[in-house]
Amino acid sequence: MTERRRRKPGIPARVLAVFLAASFAAAASAQAPDLQALEAEAAAAAEAGDYGGAAAILRRARSLFPGDPRPAVLLGDLYTDRSLHALALDEYLAAESLDPADTGTLQRIADSYGYLNREEDSIRYLRRLLDLDPGSTRAVGDLGWMLFKTHRLNEGIALLEDAERRLGPDIGFSMTLGTLRAELFEYEESRRRYEEAIAGARAEGYSRFTAVALYNLSLLESRFRLWARALEAADRSLLAESRSSGYLARGELRLRRMELDAAQADFASAFGVDTTPLARLGLAESALAAGRLDEALAWVREVADLEDHPWMASFGTDPDSFAMDLHELLSEIHRGRARVEKARPKRDLRDGAASWASRAVESLRAAWHEGLFRKYARAVAEAYAREGAELPAAVHAYLAFRGYPRRAARYLGRARALEEAWVPEARPSNDLEAALLARNPRAVEAALATLDPAWERDLTEEGLGGLAEILARRGRKAELRSVLERLWILNPGALPRRGFSLPAVLVLEASPDADGRTVRSLLRRLAKLGLETEPGAGDRIFELRLRLSGSGAEFSLEQRASGAVLRRGSVSFGAAGYGAYEVAEFVFREVNK
Amino acid sequence: MSGSSRVLSVPARIFRTLALLLLTYQARLLLADLVSLPRALGLCLLLSAAGVLLGRTRLRPWVRLAAAGVLPFALRLAFFAAFGIAGAILPGLGTDGLFPAFDETFRPLLPLWIWSVVASDAAERNRSFAVFEAGLNLALLALLFASQGGFRVTLYSHPSLLAAVAAALLFLSLAVLALLAPRGSGRSPGFPFRLAVLFAALALVLLALLGRYSEGAASRGGGLLKPTLFRFDLARYLKLETEISLSDDLVLIARKDPVDPNVLVRRFVLSEYDRRGGFRPGPGDEGIPEILPREPGSWEVPPWEGRQSLEQEYWILNLEPGALLGVDAPVSVVPWKLEPGSSFASAYALSSRAAVPALSLLLGDFDPARTPPAFALSESDRDRYTRWGDDPRIRALAEEVTAEAATPYDRVTAVLSYLRENYRYSLKPGAAPDGNQLSHFLFRSRKGYCSYFAFSMTVMLRSLGIPARVAAGFFLDPDTAVLEFHPVRADMAHAWTEVWFGEYGWIAFDPTSREPAPGESFEESRGTDPALLEGLLREILRGAREAATPEGPGPASDRRPAWDLRRAAAWVLRRSWLLAPGLWLALAVLGRGIRALRLGLLKDRRGRLLAAWESLEDALSSAGKHRSRGESIVDFAGRLDREGRGTSAEDLEGLARDWERAVHDPAPNSEEVRDLEARIRGFRGRVRSGIPAPRRVLAFLDLRRGLRPLPGGPGRRGGRR
After folding, report:
1. Among B506, B522, B338, residue whose Cα is nearest residue B428
2. Which domain holds residue A441?
3. Is B582 part of any domain?
4. Range from B532-546, B591-605, B636-650 carrying the lowest mean pLDDT
């Protein structure tokens, strides 16, 4: 505005001055960016998929309106939508500094901490939020969940029951109470709560919530060894909504029954729905069980390198428990690879030396991961012990002290006493654990006889595998052969990864022009695999007929008693020809898969 | 054990143990997930001490070796007994946890524990081993870092820390060598020889290590990346490798408008095609900026048509800090000053003149004959950009492929399409029988990686008289962008072709096929870890940026880049000029101080006399008066008196005779000893007063004198006849 003259202006001049002033003000306000307009622009950009542009607009809005928390909140929401939780937290904290009493911001901060697996910080903000808004059912539910994740079970129960009295029934409260009660092994109360949550969700038409509640119910049934009910709940969960968790639960149950193909299909479906690590670990487990160790390792490696686990916020696990499971799986895989190297036929001395080196490397890796598994198991045990959760503390302590039999036995005893008081059905599996720990073959056999033949086939496989290792170490060959036969019937892929091959009576039919030296070498190699031509092997269940021709080999594996053909295979080696190693390797691979 | 046969002095033992502790620290870094640092260092100390004690026994060698293998387990047993007692007093998970916690450190490093005992025992008894160990320590350090091959060392947050560790280990090894007690027989090889052996060992180790990094770079960098001291950069000389592999390490983060379709970020232009079949920068490529300047700067870019301004930001992580990359033709740059401790090596904002999406529509009308003079290439440039070698098959192929192309643009796109459709991508192109990888690719194998495609297109176009050149840099993958940020990995290093289009300038074409070669499949990169990327984005978004000089070893903007090892090493040394002399001075002061203290506390009269004469001989040596080999002390003193070099107050020979008498006296009189010491000190003072100051300083800094043990017993230097 220009400088005014000293003499008093006339009326037209005054009107002009006012008009000009008003015009200038209007022009100035029109040029000044409007926060709402910027927000709308950002929303439009995000809608169009230009998230970078939307973020840039909101950052500009934040700098233009430094005293307004809204741009920071919206920017945080954008980051949350893109799973950039650490960035989102920065924005929410900035918004909080401008308006510390805004409950929406506090809720967002608590959520972000949850995604970052910083449960204590999340709890702190939820408590603050509840101080400001005691009626927030979402905050109560989230706090109850966080208390569960930090093993403060009784505190969580007290909070949620108090909230129920004050605020009335809520399906979220019911679900979390069910989970808390399950952790305390209170079956009836837990089940009641889950059914309550399921009924409430169904009434409201919340299919996703229903699916989650049914998944949790399935876990409860599994915990109490009520397998058929667990499977039913998992199926119902998938019917409510095809969520990854439903497939995971069903896949785990199918793994128990050693229905490996079906389990793999379920884990693959879970992976198809969402790519959280649990689905990959499930695929790794099913591949491991089937003896496909390279595939199992590939799945686990994808997960092992990740440091970011926001998915844990929605699952009842924590970084230490997850790391424990991860390293246990890796240890088993590497141990299996070392044993496969030991069991497989070797081409020549050089191959033998390379195999030995490979075995050493895999064994070291297995030992490394076993060490990490025990370290994390100990951390989990200590976390449970601090919160007074005796049973999970004892269970994890047993796992942590696996390499120290006396201590492990002590913690196993403690865990058994606690668990079997609530879950008598757990006794057979605990007997098996104790027998394997004591390396007592008779006790292992006794425990195996008490396992559920349908639902505890995985434990049966584990027991037979452990028994085979004990017998092999003691040189009890006849008993070992019998155990290996039983193990093969249950799961052929279990043999190589424990360092064994199926023992059978060998019937070799070589063509007349077969090289005698090759045949003799082949017989020696096959004998190392447990395939022998001795006539006195009357107690063998299986017979392997191997026919050698000029260009290849074919085999059939038969049950001696009935003559039923269990497996066939053939291979052609073409013009290159073959030697004893190629045939032995083919037999080893085909028979034990 | 008598002092004369003890190999290591106390200071040498200390330095030796420090070196072992440093190696333990390195080993622990590799196993940090499981191994506890305090426990590892504690075990190292205890077992090293056990080895020293073992070395002082009279056991036979094989017994000592067996004991070395048993001692770590014995120590474990002792600890477990203590834990057992603790568990009995305070039962619970806490005390039970002591057992596995101990084993988590003990088991993974068991070979190191056995080595600690064996080496300490051997060093205690065998002088040659102590020399050997000094060099071996450096080899062990190299071995520990062998797993860190490739481009960068992941155990340290900054490469300078690795340099500091290596320097510290070298220093400790040097100190041990300096302190090794000379043999009584006088056949000591001497400090210079030991030093030479150590440096030779170090040079071999470094050569092997650097060679490994270089090999790793060529293959793991997709044939395009090469190492500098601790980071890497795109190679300024590209040749065709027979096999490469790809690393998915994060290299930089780029930020640009995601809507803009330009995805090729150029580092170098390579126009010179040489006989060996490689491409390198040519003389005319100097005008293309490659170095990040210290201050905001700009470049002249011809006013090419079909360009628009494109703003970008680059955050350099594992690339050379002074590297400048950008889309198309950079016009101006603003380097940023980064906060101390930043994860990034450098960062800058860049403005380019980038091709508009519709440019291809304009190129169809391009006629080189009608190029305005302002945009025309000079004769020399044209000559350079059309040099293509001499394989007639390549020209014949190019003519065949472009037979139906009417315009230059059609010819270019014909070659582009031909390569994309008829050749396949492979990381294992294989070796050409005649060494001509390009012809092998074009006419036999038909498979290769990006450099093969870029070379082929460039050479084929040049054979048609179309100016073309190779460009090397990275490509941005829109699918991996997070918001407007593009994480760029090492496996995104790329080479492509740029073709001259007169008033439109140099236009980029990417002829690389996306189809894998038959029988080959590529493990898709798992991408950048989201947590890592998010952390870096936080740093980018949080940091207040100001245009300032970026710190780094880069030369000024008008100098050519020379990011080779020599430069980077020189930069490191320039920065550490204070440290090395400072350490030396500290050692000299400390050594002399400790020696003086020990001498003051020394009660043995003979020892005191020997030390006194030793210091007199040091002073005489500093004054240029040296005792000859084989010459006795008395003869030496007599010679000095005859030559008139002694001071006149007392004859040195008389003093020497009195000293010898006292030294060999089984029970020397204390008064006589004190009197002799006083006379020797007086003589020494007179000698010193005549020594020039610089010589005295040098004598003070001589660590051999400052750190040697106190003389003791006959047969040592002071008592030699």
Report:
1. B522
2. 423-500
3. no
4. B636-650
Domain boundary among B530, B554, B573: B573
Residue B227 binned pLDDT confidence (cut-offs 50, 70, 90): low
Three-state SS sequence of A1-32: CCCCCCCCCCHHHHHHHHHHHHHHHHHHHHHC
Q: How many domains does chain B have?
A: 3
* Whether B433 and B295 share a structural domain: yes
pLDDT given for residue B196 in this prediction: 63
> Chain A: residue nearest B530 by CA?
A308
- Domain of residue B447 covers 232-573
Q: Which residues of A touch B34 (CB under 8 A)?
A: 368, 371-372, 375
Asked, for residue A267, whether it belongs to a domain, the answer is no
CATH label of the domain that carries residue A555: 3.30.160
User: How many structural domains are present in chain A?
Assistant: 3
Q: Look over chain B and give the mean of its residue pLDDT values, rounded to a whole number.
A: 81
Lowest-pLDDT range of A281-290, B496-505, B583-592: B583-592
- Cβ–Cβ under 8 Å, residues A572 and A552: yes
Maximum CA extent, chain A:
133
For residue B49, give Cα distances in angstroms to A213, B20, B56, B75, B123: 62, 12, 11, 12, 12
CA distance B110 to B47: 11
Say whether B93 and A382 touch across the interface (CB within 8 A): yes
User: Quick check: B201 and B139 in contact, CB under 8 A?
Assistant: yes
Domain assignment present for A462: yes
| Domain annotation covers residue B32 | yes
**In this structure, is residue A194 part of a structural domain?**
no
Tell me: do B175 and B252 sit in the same domain.
Answer: no
Read off the pLDDT of residues A400-431 as tens digits, 9 standing for 90 and up: 999 999 999 999 999 999 999 999 999 999 99
In chain A, the residue whose alpha carbon lies closest to the alpha carbon of B80 is A404
The B-side interface with A (CB below 8 A) comprises 33-34, 93-94, 96-97, 99-101, 103-104, 107-108, 257-259, 481-485, 526, 529-532, 534-535, 537-538, 541-542
* ipTM tops 0.85: no
Q: Are residues A492 and A516 in the same domain?
A: no
Instruction: Give the closest-approach CA distance of A84 to chain B in angstroms.
Output: 6
Residue B640 forms part of a structural domain: yes
Determine whether the interchain pair B541/A306 forms a contact, defined as Cβ–Cβ distance below 8 Å. no
Residue A6 placed within a domain? yes
Contact A84 B534 (CB under 8 A): yes
Question: Can you tell me whether residue A95 is helix, strand or coil?
Answer: helix
The answer to whether the CB atoms of A372 and B526 lie below 8 A apart is no
* Cβ-nearest to B541 among A53, A87, A400: A87
Question: A375–B34: do the CB atoms touch at under 8 Å?
Answer: yes
Read off the pLDDT band of B184 (50, 70, 90): very low
| Nearest residue to B348 (alpha-carbon basis) of B319, B315, B310 | B315
On whether the CB atoms of residues A396 and A377 are closer than 8 A, the answer is yes
Domain co-membership, A535 together with A514: yes
| Whole-number percent of chain A with pLDDT over 90 | 68
Q: Are residues B442 and B469 in the same domain?
A: yes
Are A375 and B104 an interchain contact pair (Cβ–Cβ within 8 Å)? Answer: yes
